[in-house]
Amino acid sequence: MTTHYKLWIDGEWTEAESESRFSVINPATGEEIATAASAERVDARRAIDAARDAFDNTDWSSNPSLRTRVLQKAAVLLRKDADSLARLETLDNGMPIGWAKRFVLDTADFFEYFAGLTRPLEEKLDEHSTVFYEPIGVAAGIVPWNLPLKMASWKVAPALAAGDTIVLKPSSQTPLTALKLGKICNRAGCPKGVMNVIAGKGSVVGAELAGSTKVDKVAFTGGTETGKEVMRLASANLKKITLECGGKSANIVLEDADIAKAVKGSVFAIFFNAGQVCTAGSRLLLPERIHDRFMEHLIVETEKLIIGDGLADPDMGPVISAGQMEKDLEYIRYGVEDGAKLVFGGKRLDMGVGRAGGFFVEPTLFDGVAPEMRIAQEEIFGPVLSVLTYSDEDEAIEIANGTRYGLAGAVWSKDVSHAKRIASRVRAGTVWINTYHGAPKHAPFGGYRESGIGRELGLHGLREYLEVKHLMVG
Predict the structure, then answer these.
(1) Which CATH superfamily is domain 3-245+448-472 in?
(2) Is 208 designated active site?
(3) Residues 102, 79: contact at Cβ < 8 Å?
(4) Residues 301-325: pLDDT tens digits?
(5) The pTM is what?
(6) Is 244 known to be catalytic?
(7) Which position among 244, 379, 450, 456 bears the catalytic label?
């Protein structure tokens, strides 16, 4: 019998008022693994009211000791339930089980880290002026399907540490671990109404959260166009916003790079989680002098990748849905039409399991990509790599900064000082040197330009959930 998941509102499991529900699909097989209650605007309002009441009429925001205990206990429970949560994440999202387990443990680490940041912050400016940081109020967190539990923790942990209450809306494609997180926070001692989780359509539930005048802050991770709509709706009461949106990250290899290390890093940069991360190194920039040698190694390394059901812990699992698979294949067609050279992959893989055979796309390499091509400008969010060639470092920087995004990037070189100088010219919120995809819990994460507004993680992330008050004594 298929498991059914309800909404988590005001410390209780509850059905949507309309009693409507949707199917949750395993992308490795195309088969239903669960159903979930589908919230409507009325349910979102119930959750907002619960969060509002908990903020206004309990001591949650003024009791840092309680918040510390709750966050610490949640970390303990997450680690205790790590195996079952990881399996659920893999069934729901398709990611390799090894990475799913790592992300559950990362989530526990985030809660533990923010448990140490619950004490009131203040800054003494001079003998007359002091700056205090106070909880904002009710926060809304809207998270995507690509790293479901980890992205949820990036919203929930700092919000709770700050003393806010929160309504979390996971993607309808991957709601299961987020709903479990609501119950875990309850088991950890979270008072009723402080943590609420509701699944439903973004155009309905997400819009209600973003536009509600009872919500004081909205934190969104997802596509840039949706982020712009969230920003528009949030203007209803000028609520604070954090937007972590799209990316088209440039992965720059310099002539003196360790080729073996840079090749492995470039494969990981694009094919990790089937390319379904906003920081994916989807544009590989190679200098003319080492291009041919690098490409030979890149193709060999890509050929080694094991593709399969995430429960078997392959190198790469399926993409999230039939719709995402078709989008990826459409962009592959665009690449061919625009004159790029398809040198590896480019097709759907039929794994022969489930009623739909799962949603698998071959890891795909395009060479000879021009900066203006669609596959070099638009976020694909799939396992498709565009290789561009540059003649000198000024051209590399021009290409790297030549999109509307600015989320992340990387530089590969044996000369770290030189790499740092190149990195300083890349207009992006995170630039890695001789590595890729790291996001330490204490370091700020976010983007320039149309990749977003604000920062997550670390003290910068905590302050996104706090108001700033200046107190002056005459």
Answers:
(1) Aldehyde Dehydrogenase; Chain A, domain 1 (3.40.605.10)
(2) no
(3) no
(4) 999 999 999 999 999 999 999 999 9
(5) 0.95
(6) yes
(7) 244
